[in-house]
Design a protein that fits this description.
Elements lengths: L9 H14 L10 H4 L30 H32 L2 H29 L5 H37 L6 H27 L2 H28 L7 H40 L1
Helix pairs in contact: 1-3, 1-6, 3-4, 3-5, 3-6, 4-5, 5-8, 6-7, 6-8, 7-8
Length: 283
């Protein structure tokens, strides 16, 4: 029988990000996913990653455009590469916003530019692929890949505007975030990171349980968000001449994290739909 594939876990996504920072390479999830299963075939092993710059696609090969099953597979790999880049950007964003330097914030802003570049390349490639003769399953895969690519780019913009830019305001306004507030915001960040990891696991492996965990995370996140909002409101009574500026920065970070959490849930819903399509084909 066919060898069973092992699937990535949320911890492995975190490990992938660590490797990315350590050796400046991009890890990817080379797994059979619902998005690939929609075509019912696997890409040959010789279709692999090229050595490219961070803002350049590593997998998209125009020579494959006349073979939709292969073109969609390399597009899927590029989407997962994009997903890991966004994941790394988010992991570093809140620590940088709370205490990072302008240089660190600028470096994260540059990652968003890389995401924009990769997004454009993937969308263009998918557009060219869609002009070919696609089966109904391949057409659905195309739509799902396009949707998740757009959502990942949107998430990166949310991180850039709602977290990284707010970190710049912290520096401009000379805001010192208290230890208690740092802990509160880190707890929110950790919760969203867990949700993002589950969303990417669902996307990369078709793990319906991971997608369900994302949906179920909504209540827990809202509870943490409510506690953070109350804490920040109480901080307005502190004898700090910068308390209003501090509140403005900190509450914007809470709002930014809420929006990223919403984006994670949208990605998980796409992954769940992909899994449902596979189930229809298999039944």
């Amino acid at each position: 029988g066919e060898e069973t594939k092992s699937f990535a876990t949320p911890q492995e996504f975190a490990n992938a990000h660590t490797i990315f920072n350590a050796v400046n390479t991009v890890a990817f999830i080379a797994l059979l996913t619902p998005l690939v299963q929609l075509t019912g075939r696997l890409v040959p092993a010789e279709v692999g990653e090229r050595t490219v710059g961070e803002a350049q696609p590593a997998y998209l090969d125009r020579a494959l455009l006349n073979t939709p099953v292969l073109a969609l597979e390399v597009a899927r790999k590029e989407v997962m590469r994009l997903a890991l880049k966004v994941r790394g950007m988010f992991a570093d964003s809140v620590p940088a916003a709370l205490s990072g330097t302008r240089r660190e914030l600028a470096a994260l802003h540059d990652v968003n530019k890389e995401v924009d570049s990769l997004h454009g390349a993937i969308v263009g490639y998918l557009g060219e692929t869609s002009r070919g003769e696609l089966s109904s399953g391949q057409r659905e895969e195309f739509r799902l890949l396009l949707q998740v690519t757009n959502e990942l780019e949107h998430m990166a913009n949310l991180i850039d505007r709602g977290v990284i830019a707010v970190g710049g305001r912290r520096i401009d306004d000379v805001v010192e975030v208290s230890d208690r507030t740092r802990q509160t915001l880190r707890e929110l960040h950790d919760a969203v990171t867990d949700t993002l990891d589950n969303a990417l696991e669902a996307l990369g492996t078709g793990n319906v349980t991971a997608a369900k965990r994302v949906a179920e995370s909504k209540a827990g996140f809202h509870e943490l968000e409510g506690s953070a909002t109350v804490h920040l409101a109480d901080r307005l009574t502190a004898p700090d001449p910068q308390r209003v500026q501090a509140y403005s920065v900190e509450i914007e970070l809470v709002e930014g994290l809420r929006r990223v959490h919403q984006s994670c849930r949208r990605i998980a819903r796409v992954a769940r739909r992909a899994a449902d399509e596979v189930e229809k084909i298999d039944s």
